[in-house]
Design a protein that fits this description.
Length: 165
């Protein structure tokens, strides 16, 4: 029997709100482990529009980092013989372009900005499911962010918050 899962995120601080992977840490290294993709993701915009700005900024930063991840994924395909799904990469890039066009709405945390960020993060999880890899969402930029967070001893994934404190 397959479980029916419903995710109801209360923050948009990470693109993992609908991810089919969980990141586990062992001996200082991150490992992406395949998990169940949600059957349904529900966004309550009244809640999400009221979250602290630093969480929205972190989620936006996590999404924009996909530009680097997409280049890394292509390089891993060319140089490392890793599987690559051009359809997922092209869709991810289109979503990022829309998100950047609506950056003022995201910063204002108005309805269209929060809706755009929510759908972008949900679609990011869907693209990981479709491509069967985290490559569409994470590359070397995540390794650098993890290192900064580790050295600083604090931080929030996707933001410069750790450096501003």
């Amino acid at each position: 029997m397959d479980l029916f899962t419903i995710f109801i995120p209360t923050t948009l601080s990470s693109d993992a709100i609908a991810s089919p992977f969980s990141v586990l840490w062992k001996e200082g290294k991150s490992h992406a482990v395949r998990t169940k993709f949600p059957n349904l993701v529900i966004g309550d915009y009244d809640v999400l529009m009221k979250e602290p700005h630093k969480f929205v900024a972190a989620g936006f930063g996590d999404m924009v980092a996909k530009y680097t991840a997409l280049f890394d994924w292509r390089l891993a395909y060319w140089l490392g013989d890793e599987p690559y799904l051009d359809f997922a990469a092209q869709l991810a890039e289109s979503i990022l372009n829309l998100l950047l066009r609506r950056v003022k709405d995201v910063a204002a945390q108005n309805y269209i900005g929060i809706e755009t960020l929510f759908y972008a993060e949900v679609m990011d999880g869907y693209l990981m499911e479709l491509a069967n890899t985290t490559r569409v969402a994470a590359g070397s930029e995540h390794l650098i962010a993890f290192a900064i967070e580790h050295v600083a001893g604090k931080g929030m994934h996707g933001s410069r918050w750790a450096l501003e404190q």
